[in-house]
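Bench log, entry 3. Co-assembly request; chain sequences pasted below exactly as received.
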Amino acid sequence: MRSSTAQPGERQRDSEKVRATQILNAASALLAEAGSDGFTAAAVARRAGVNKALIFYYWGSVADLFERVLQGYYDSHRAALETALSVAGTKRERVHRLLDTYVDFMQDNRAYVRIVQHQIAGGGPYAAVVQRHYAEITQWALSQLEPLVPSSGATSPRHLHFSISAVVVNYFTYAPGLAEAWGHDPLTPGALAERRAHVHWLVDACLDSLERGG
Amino acid sequence: MRSSTAQPGERQRDSEKVRATQILNAASALLAEAGSDGFTAAAVARRAGVNKALIFYYWGSVADLFERVLQGYYDSHRAALETALSVAGTKRERVHRLLDTYVDFMQDNRAYVRIVQHQIAGGGPYAAVVQRHYAEITQWALSQLEPLVPSSGATSPRHLHFSISAVVVNYFTYAPGLAEAWGHDPLTPGALAERRAHVHWLVDACLDSLERGG
DNA sequence: GTACGAACTGACCGTATGGTCAAACCATGC
DNA sequence: GCATGGTTTGACCATACGGTCAGTTCGTAC
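Structure output for the full assembly:
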């Protein structure tokens, strides 16, 4: 099947990395669909249409491959947030734009947030890597937020950031449970729009309270 | 070892259920410490000081034993919330008392909330059972909340309850990650008190906004 | 003491996992 | 044609898992 498309000369050029990225793409797609539980060497190999041993030949171990996939998610997550914050505007405008970007990203990368949440809780073998990423991105977000929301104690950026993040993130990780608890699919466009309105409302309520010195 | 403490006549009386509860207790303790990942038949047996086959003799399967342990958590969770809501008072008083009870319970049962969060996200073999419990307790909470916070759309009890719940719950499930991201242990008495103050502040901010017609 | 039956044990099975390895394959350079 | 070296393969290994089972222990009733 492969030999039919291969041409003379392209072997050394392409196959230098083509197999590695082929496996990486399959791994990424598999992780998005099946989660970290279904992320096994055999499953990745089957998905990539490749012998299982090649997983280890190109990526060393399943854990290394997992880390590489996760790094891709992390990079785009950070890039999205940085882009959103680079635009000028009032404090409220910037906060709401950051919020929208955050919701968008979680909406588009449900597998990522599910995995991060599970590993952060200390439940998996990749807890160390995920926690390092999480600490990095949290510290960056806090450094950006501190000039916007200067306060301390119970209304510090730490708590505010964490709470807002929880409000956004859990909606997607809890989606399967919400479907049953609420009696309707929380991921339809209408439901998502309502949720988005809610988090904007909630953030405004917090900012109002802060400005009034609550 | 057992025969030294055993006495004539007590066999039928005690051993009727003593072994079953002995295994159940070990299973509960193990689940609290190691989480659902470390919850294997061999581990439970080792912890209970019992032959592995007895797990299946008394409980049928590992999944059945897991369900029984979870049922205990669920019962006390529901009992705690019902007790908190049974006390009379103003709307704000009742909301804040419910909140305190919720924080207390999560603080005392971190294993439970970690497991529920993981299974709810669809990552484990017990997702169905956990989601049924979650749906029950959510629907009960909503039925209690609807008279207190009557609104719809983006500020409906559904969204409010879910957001507040996320704010409370994630603090405990994310504790390992927060320790690294924040640079200090989020579970010290001082840190917990600050977090408790934060969630009370946040709920008040929401209630203020609601009352002003936000 | 002997038959009975519940409680208990260790060995075993099937399956799945991550990972290894010697051998085979095959395009290329000489 | 042939040696070379990166690439690919199927067979294989160790480990861990849930679960089963034939057989043994042991208190009790007769």
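Residues 11-12, 15, 19, 50-54, 57 of chain A lie near DNA strand D (CB under 10 Å from a C1'). Residues 67-211 of chain A form a domain with the Tetracycline Repressor; domain 2 fold (CATH 1.10.357).
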